[in-house]
Amino acid sequence: MAQKMKHTMGERLNIRFNRKIKLEFHGARLTSDGGLLAYRELDEALGLFNSASAVMNDRRTGRNIQHDMTNLLRQSVYSRLAGYEDVNDAQRLSV
Question: What is the pLDDT of residue 69?
Fold first, then answer.
């Protein structure tokens, strides 16, 4: 039968554990676009894109418009801030 260890108040309890550190790289789980959150917070605080899109003339017509000018402008600017060279991926959103 195992003995129970009794500890009294003020007695030092030593805990031993494996102190080796294991480092793993999970690059596929990371994003380089995380810094854009700071730009979004700044925009939310100052209302930059809302102000800019309010003075832009939206000439699109029809029932298939899914994205408003604020979000289209935001997509274009954030893509450039993230370093995407040609930003042609966002062109489909503006139709």
Answer: 86
The answer to whether residues 79 and 87 touch, using CB atoms and an 8 Å cutoff, is yes
Please state, as a whole number, how many other Cβ atoms lie within 10 Å of the Cβ of residue 36: 15
Using alpha carbons, select from 81, 92, 3 the residue that is nearest to residue 37. 81
Q: Note the pTM of the prediction, 2 decimals.
A: 0.56
Report CA-CA distances (Å) from 56 to 14, 45, 60, 65, 73: 68, 21, 12, 16, 10
Residues belonging to the chain: 95
Count of H-run helices and E-run strands, the chain: 3, 0
Residues 6+ apart with CB under 8 A from 58: 68, 69
